[in-house]
Automatic annotation (TrEMBL):
It holds the Pfam family Ribosomal_S9. Transmembrane segments: none annotated. It comes from Candidatus Gottesmanbacteria bacterium CG_4_10_14_0_8_um_filter_37_24. This is 30S ribosomal protein S9. Belongs to the universal ribosomal protein uS9 family. GO terms for biological process: translation. GO terms for molecular function: RNA binding; structural constituent of ribosome. PROSITE patterns: RIBOSOMAL_S9.
Length: 146
């Protein structure tokens, strides 16, 4: 016996709000690690990602604040380099999902992903700076097989 199709009430259908921000996505890799990075350009306000509120200038890695995921001053200096070299510190909200590898590989993949996403924001302005600093080059060194 065929089932009756479910009919939704007109009141229950919600219209989705138009995006008030733009995103730039990129993938960064280092050793065995892969980082999917999103840069959010927020004119004002914030973005909600799985119960986490992300404001302008904040970074989240695997749903944790970046300071908790990559602890220490050395790590902070490394992942802030693409923003410092392009003078874009605090202009974007960043979220990343990183899988595989160890801490050093994940940090390198994160920096590579941020740099590739920044390149998509303004290619003519940021690409020469990031290329000169070496952030756009994928470090292809991997563990040698036995």
């Amino acid at each position: 016996m065929p089932r009756k199709p479910k009919v939704q009430n007109k009141n229950s259908i919600k219209k989705s709000d138009s995006k008030l921000y733009s995103t730039y996505q990129a993938v960064g890799r280092r050793k065995e690690a892969t980082a999917r990075v999103k840069l959010y350009v927020l004119p004002d306000g914030s973005v909600t990602l799985k119960d986490k509120i992300l404001k302008k200038g904040e970074m989240i890695v695997n749903l944790l604040p970046v300071e908790k995921y990559f602890s220490g001053d050395v790590c902070k200096k490394i992942y802030m380099q693409p923003f410092n070299s392009t003078d874009t510190l605090g202009r974007f909200a960043v979220s990343a999902i990183i899988k595989g590898g160890g801490t050093a590989g994940q940090l390198g993949a994160f920096v590579h992903g941020i740099s590739r996403a920044l390149e998509k924001v303004d290619k003519e302005k940021y690409r020469p700076i990031l290329k000169k600093m070496g952030f756009l080059t994928r470090d292809s060194r991997v563990k040698e097989r036995r």
